[in-house]
Amino acid sequence: MATPSGSVAAAAAAATGQQEPRNKTVRRLPNDEASLNKVLDDSIKDAYKRPWHRLERGLRLNRLRAFVEEEKKKLNLTQFESATLLALLQKALDKKLLNSKTTVIYDQEKEAILEIKGLVMHRGADGIMKYQLLEKKAVSTMRKKKDEGANGGTGAAQA
Prior knowledge:
There is one protein chain. The protein has a domain at 45-133. It has 4 helices and 4 strands. It has helices at 8-16, 32-47, 57-75, 79-94; strands at 104-107, 112-116, 119-123, 129-133. Strand 3 and strand 4 form a beta hairpin. Helix 3 (57-75) runs antiparallel to helix 4. The longest helix has 19 residues, at 57-75. It is flat.
């Protein structure tokens, strides 16, 4: 009996109803999943140890959520008030107002935001907490233009 593959082993396997394995070598890396999980866990632990301006956007959002939760506990904020604060901080992050390490005081050891400069919170007459993020105004430095006809005020004649 001739088989399309032409091998005797394939013919014997076909006669007994068993299939020949396609690839006889099985590669197994020792503790493949465990070592991968260890590397990922280590990188996750180190991810928040970086300075604020070096954190990726998703990590920053995570730290902002943790900051809002801390403020919620400290100031006894309602769910609505904490959601409003988080929305304000997310918009500020999207507008790149929170990218500076001087704006956000971040403790790398505690992996937590200590303070956001310019964040103002006050409780209105209606009892609801209001938030505002004061933006730094762009300060432009003015350069003094030099007169092309004058030689810096030395009085020397032009040649």
